[in-house]
Design goal:
Blueprint lengths: L1 H18 L15 E2 L2 E4 L5 H7 L3 E6 L7 H6 L3 E9 L2 H12 L5 H18 L14 E6 L7 H4 L3 H19 L5 E4 L4 E3 L11 H8 L3 E3 L10 E9 L3 H12 L4 E9 L9 E2 L3
Parallel strand pairs: 4-10, 5-6, 5-9, 9-10
Antiparallel strand pairs: 1-2, 3-4, 3-11, 7-8
Bound molecules: zinc ion.
């Protein structure tokens, strides 16, 4: 039933795109109907050219305990987790995420989530050795958005991570209708909860960021659902990794089979030797 609803929604957007003369939010050219190569998907707010310019995917590993973990334990894979980011957090990606965060242009997320879905589909279907990323080659994943404290919700109205996860789930459903073998994604909302308020991370240095989010998360009522399952942690931006570090600490207690991190953007550090760009 939900699949039919998703398909109808996609058809509606498709029809709207045909009559919609709104310009691309980035280049201001008329947003002509643009279907991507492998999927009936109409870009709603950002044109295909601008999205192609934006997409410079990167994969790497986030070490769970950056201060104590040695190179050996990083390589063993026991304390580090693979991440996938759609673009470096600079230039156009930074501008678009600022529009989403500061101007509440949440609608942009539906266009940004589509190439992220395609990237996930590609990477998870190509097997563990793909491009240096040890992502498990599975067909089905549970999506866990990084939660937000309830005190922030009245102001911000929406949790961006949850919106991204919702769009990814939607694309997986509609794509599944047209493909024999497709990626199945399911959003599970209350695996993690934020139990105390935190300050915005962007004004803090690395150490302050760690302290700011320390023990800020706890397992929620859906935590039991992820035991022995493959999960993907979703957030909008991965910067110092402090928030992700705290989330991972809790998620591991629920004993999922594997954890993958997926974000729209990733801050590029100069000595960020573990990451690599993905050719698309
Ligand atoms: Zn454009």
């Amino acid at each position: 039933m939900k699949t039919i609803y998703c398909l109808l929604k996609e058809i509606l957007f498709w029809a709207l795109a045909l009559v919609n003369e709104a310009p691309c939010r980035v280049c201001l050219r008329p947003l002509a109907f643009t279907a991507s190569e492998n999927f009936v998907h109409a870009n709603r707010h950002i044109c295909r050219d601008c999205l192609s310019y934006l997409c410079q995917p990167e994969t790497g590993r986030l070490v769970l305990e950056p201060e104590t973990c040695t190179e050996t334990c990083t390589n063993s894979g026991t304390s580090s987790f693979a991440y996938i980011a759609l673009a470096p957090y600079e230039d156009l990606a930074k501008d678009l995420i600022a529009l989403v965060k500061q101007k509440a242009e949440h609608r942009l997320l539906c266009d940004l989530a589509f190439p992220l879905y395609c990237l996930l589909d590609k990477i998870t279907s190509e097997g563990p050795a793909t491009r240096g990323l040890t992502a498990p080659n599975r067909q089905s994943y549970l999506l866990i958005p990084i939660p937000m404290h309830k005190s922030k919700l009245p102001k911000q109205k929406q949790n961006h991570a949850k919106l991204i996860a919702g769009h990814l789930e939607h694309y997986a459903r509609t794509q599944g209708i047209f493909k024999k073998k497709s990626l199945r994604l399911q959003l599970v909302d209350e695996v993690l909860v934020q139990i105390r308020e935190t300050k915005p991370q962007k004004y803090l240095n690395k150490r302050e960021r760690r302290l700011n989010v320390q023990n800020a998360f706890a397992l929620g009522k859906d935590a039991a659902k992820i035991k022995d399952k493959d999960v993907i942690l979703i957030d909008d931006v991965l910067t110092s990794g402090a928030t992700m570090y705290e989330a991972l600490k809790e998620i591991r207690k629920a004993q999922p089979r594997s954890i993958l991190i997926c974000t729209l953007a990733r801050t590029i550090y100069i000595n960020h030797a573990k990451s690599r760009r993905v050719e698309t």
